[in-house]
Please model this.
Amino acid sequence: MSWSVDRPMARQIQLTRRPEGALSADDFAARSVPIEPLVDGDYVVRNAWLSIDAATILRIGDLATGYLPPFALDSPMEGWAVGSVVESRSSRFQVGTPVLHNYGWRDHTVLSDRVTGWGAGEILDVGSGRSLRDYVGRLGTTGLTAWAGLVRVAAAKPGDVVYVSAGAGAVGGMVVQLAKARGHIVVASAGSADKVAYLIDELGADAAFSYRDGPVEAGLRAAAPDGIDVYFDNVGGTHLDAALQAMRAGGRVALCGAISTYAPDSTEPGVRNLFSAIAKGLTLKGFLARMYADDFDTARAEIAALVDAGTLRFPEVVSQGLDQAPAALLDLLHGGNIGKILVSLGI
Ligand SMILES: NC(=O)c1ccc[n+]([C@@H]2O[C@H](COP(=O)([O-])OP(=O)(O)OC[C@H]3O[C@@H](n4cnc5c(N)ncnc54)[C@H](OP(=O)(O)O)[C@@H]3O)[C@@H](O)[C@H]2O)c1
Model:
């Protein structure tokens, strides 16, 4: 099989240094590298959409977190991407096949059908009202993380009071809406008055507050005066501390992320209220969405039903062009987004 190569080079974003202070666009470079000739099993995906994800910031540092390893310097960065096969020596991934994979931050990615498992190429169902773009958003890791954390990790029950931090972000906004659809009482927090209004007026949260208006524990006490049963933690630090204090006996915490601690210059204090977990018999459980891969079909069906019913809001902030990816990541870190941040590669 051949591909008339009008773009023999792949453009990619590389990390050029590990910042010691604040992360900046100068820590990244866009570089072009040749696409090597394929061997049997290889295929080339021309990426159409890149997902911008908070966890990317973790891999810019060199902490041994047990998550994916730190990015190597002067090598392509990674992250979720969708696109179509444009050249192939694979029997499974033929030219035109829509593919999801975790080797984005570049316009073309060479994959191999010899590599399987998490992050390797997954053939997508883009029929029946589903688009490529959905798989870096509501039907991708964003939606699946929200579903797995709420349903499997926290095992939220009807009538539970569910608190979610970073509620106006991509994962948080999905949690708010899934929780409302499942009959929970939902409290959310975010970093501005606009986001608080969005949480209540657009997403249907029962109460919301801005953590910038005062201590998180005061905001949470006002929003949920009788306490909470579930905390979906996207932020960590003082948010987790306040949630532990607000928990009712037997409450559950889904530890999804800790974005307040990700920036290289973060000064977020550690958790002081851990004894609450002992005193109230709480369960705190960390998770990665991929640990619930067996549930993905169920989760996608539940999310798709909300999409089909026209009730799911999923705003997207779209940057145009690969070179904008570092700025988009900085925007996420600084709370510039309502909803999901994507980069369009213009195809
Ligand atoms: N466990 C998993 O498998 C998994 C998968 C995907 C994502 N995650 C986690 O889910 C969380 C959300 O990720 P996302 O990709 O959907 O990003 P996002 O929520 O769309 O964007 C991040 C948001 O975090 C908030 N934020 C940033 N710094 C903060 C701080 N110091 N204190 C409080 N809030 C802060 C900002 O909103 P404000 O304006 O509200 O500050 C920002 O919009 C992250 O912790 C991420 O690591 C986990």
Observations:
- The mean pLDDT is 95.
